[in-house]
Design a protein that fits this description.
40% helix; 2 domains; alpha/beta; EC 4.2.1.136; Carbohydrate_kinase_pred_CS; 7-stranded parallel sheet; UDP-N-acetylmuramoyl-L-alanine:D-glutamate ligase; Rossmann fold
Length: 503
Amino acid sequence: MLEIISGTAVKKLDTDFIAEKGITSHRLMENAAQAFCDWFESNYHRNDKVGIFCGPGNNGGDGLAIGRLLWRKGYDVIVFLLGEEGKVSADCRLNRELLPDKLPAISMSADDIAHMEFDLDVVIDAILGVGVNRPLGGDFLGMITKLNALTHVSRVAVDIPTGVPSDECLEGDAFKADITVSFQYPKFSLMFPEHAGYVGILHVVSIGIGNKFMRQFSQNKFYLQLKDVVSRHLNFSRFAHKGDFGRVLLVGGSYGSIGAIRMCAEASLRTGSGLAACLVPTCGVQVLQVGLPEVQVISSNSDRSLSLAYPKEGLDRYDAAGIGPGMGTTADAKEFLLDFIKTFKGPKVLDADAINILAQDKEMQEYLGEEDVLTPHVKEFERLVGGCQNHKQRLAKAREYSRQYGCVLVLKGAHTCISFPDGTQYFNSSGNKHMATGGAGDVLTGMITSFLGQGYGVKNAVLCGVYQHGLAGEIASEDKRRGTIASDIIKAIPKSYLALDVD
């Protein structure tokens, strides 16, 4: 699994790798350029006009090597050089010298930046890299402003968009990439929603640095990818019966909000639960028995919301529970939640209104434990912990909350962050913007609950649930785009197993 390390450690990481392998820093730069070009070839045509904007540091050196390699592969390439000649790094200078004579290379002055017009199909940003530690200014800001104003071009950032710091939140402006191709590991700041408009779609390409070198700089932050999930899935024999696939209880719903718990239950079944039961107020019984006949339905003996009158006998027959979707935050719901948390002893997922109730009652949070999973979106999370100035602070608070209460916290969003009580955090790579639709969170609750019920253990259940939820969303939106709804994600869950090649 890929480590996410500090941008300040990059120089030491590169130095250690170079020394161990007995190669030069220029050779490592060539590896990075080749990895970028391999990706580029599979995404862009040779008749595209490609402009590569190169700064004076090693990020510019990467860009120059990329330009040389793409030109040799037959791409229509032009290189633009920025920065003072006396401040060019050694490897960047070498790559300037290695540019073929016939490859157009233009040195850009401030006046050139202000007046030059660019006729390009693809803009590759290799101006400044992970060393940025202050807002852009001068010629660099002028060039970025010019590039951001171009229309009808595809923008690709090399490693990190110029101007975006690797570990902090952006101040000022930065290159607005459609795609960022990051080398070896994603930089921490690329996980921040504040930077979404600058990062675009993130791709991570290997340049040959193994985990052995990454671990010495570990911050216990990891990037969750498809290959990390497949091995975490359980295998079941042909003799397995529905009991082996787990019995789960989905709890929630209130008058006018039964759909949430219905979607949660259907997602659980599609994820593989052997048996799913729903505990709902009486207003939801008929809805579920007609709309989702595969689930058992238990009434809490209250017409409009969950109440303390729910049947408690037999709760121990369920392997896991998911609670919260659509349940409301009435006084009855609050009493119910506290009683359920105390009564149900198995692993459980708390979502939506269950989290909103917890936020109102700090004492109730003391009942959380290592088998409990909270799945808040950003607003729900800030109700729990208070306001946050930025996402970096939010992630720090998520880690601290998980440690304090000994539970797992899934902070939902692009690159959903999963915090474990031991301080580790995992950032998800699957999913897309088309999943930003009502009910998608209820689907996630059902999926994680299902994996808990199947006996995955808390860590594997959460990692598999979060990744596969995003994967199902990608599959569902392939032919629907912004028309994707939560029910489409549920329908795509079986296809996600096919994509993972998990039986």
